[in-house]
Amino acid sequence: MGKEQLPADFVSRMQELLREESDDFFASYDMPRAQGLRLNLLKAERAAEPVRNILRDFRLSPVPWCGTGYYYDETVRPGKHPYHTAGLYYIQEPSAMSAVEMLDPQPGETILDLAAAPGGKTSHIASKMAGRGLLIANEIHPERARILSENVERMGISNAVVTSAAPDELSRRFPGCFDRIMLDAPCSGEGMFRKDPGAIDEWSPSHVELCVSRQWDIVQDACAMLKPGGTLAYSTCTFNEDENEKLVQRILDRYPELELRGMKRLWPHRERGEGHFVAVLVKSAEGASAAERVHAEAESKRGGKPKRGDKPSAERSALEAFKAWAEQDLPGHVLPPGAPLLFGDELYWLPAGEGWSWSEHQLRGLKILRAGLHLAHLKKNRIEPAHALAMASKPEQAARTVDLSPDSAEVSAYLRGETLSVPSEYKGWALVTTDGLPLGWGKSSGGQLKNHLPKGLRQFK
Ligand SMILES: C[S@@+](CC[C@H](N)C(=O)[O-])C[C@H]1O[C@@H](n2cnc3c(N)ncnc32)[C@H](O)[C@@H]1O
């Protein structure tokens, strides 16, 4: 793609920004795109053989700024592999991996990913949290939120609540609540022109202005939700300064309690990846603003924190039924800190962050797509384990497993939703895995394994 195909205003802005480097920058549009994937540590840490296999078969080479990130050979299709279905890795543009590295999430923290779909940064954060603490992954657009929720499930994330709310709706509920916030802002996408030529048609100076004003609205909500001492990573996939450095300066001017700790740009003519911008800001330990203090006081007056042991009996009895099921079929499963929550006949395990408790006010009326780990569907007089529970389990926790080689006919049959043959002594729920990585459930009896892969996830190729 030549300079001629790019909007003239964009070309002149980039020439002004990059001066003598701009020729190299425009030449990068004719270079092949870098393809990347990032290992999911929730799975990869105990999957030495599958990791060895993909290092070799996908000809992986390391992404310099992300310890779990790799470039893959453009001739391979990792999105079609059963290891992808099993959540061993997430396909992600390499430059985009820089943002969560700079946010530096820690296990046990309470973290918000404010503009999260389709889930690249959410899964990166969860990988670093190692199942400990609480992650809220939010996406304003309902359809994109659904895809985010599916990715959370596929990656086996057990400590994430997926919501679909506007940022101001969240900041009313969660003032001063988060140790870290990822704000991967909607932007004019200039860094994606090479990957997604459709973004070129959408670009105009007035669209950039609209993005800036939207970013400013969202960032104010993000700042209000940071705890004193908390960290905000603000990122975009665009080049212009109005959406990047100038927006960060505006934050610093408006919020003196925030300090800039780092700022990084990735350029397609300097690195193997698309354009990306990340800034990291830290709120001072005393840093609750007057507005947040008012919110916090109102919140504490509201009271309404559910007391321990205060769970309605329907939830208690659903949990008892689940535990009785797990004793038989998933005896190694351990529930992390949290509480049961029922949505109709669906039983979830709502994670509790360390030093965090949910109040009724925070949850009431909030659009929640996934209230933590989906444990089970309640049926008349029985329990059916949820697909998410399979994806978050380990084979050694299950009473029965059926392991299928990733290149076997059986694995394709399972992923198409077909019944499999199993040893005749098998009776009950079995965790179906590929090289030890869970793919879903099957229910065995009489030498047959009835397929319980959700219909929407079945793959017909
Ligand atoms: C750059 S994308 C996020 C990519 C995601 N973080 C990832 O790594 O997969 C920005 C997201 O912001 C969402 N968005 C658009 N308008 C928004 C708004 N006014 N408030 C919050 N999010 C918005 C978009 O739907 C989009 O999913």
UniProtKB/TrEMBL annotation:
Residues reported in the UniProt entry to bind S-adenosyl-L-methionine: A115, A116, A117, P118, G119, G120, K121, E139, D184
SUPFAM superfamilies: S-adenosyl-L-methionine-dependent methyltransferases
Residue span(s) of domain SAM-dependent MTase RsmB/NOP-type: 25-284
Stored PROSITE patterns: SAM_MT_RSMB_NOP (PS51686)
GO biological process, one term: RNA methylation
Annotated stretches, region: Disordered: 291-316
The family this protein is said to belong to: Belongs to the class I-like SAM-binding methyltransferase superfamily. RsmB/NOP family.
Protein name: RNA methyltransferase
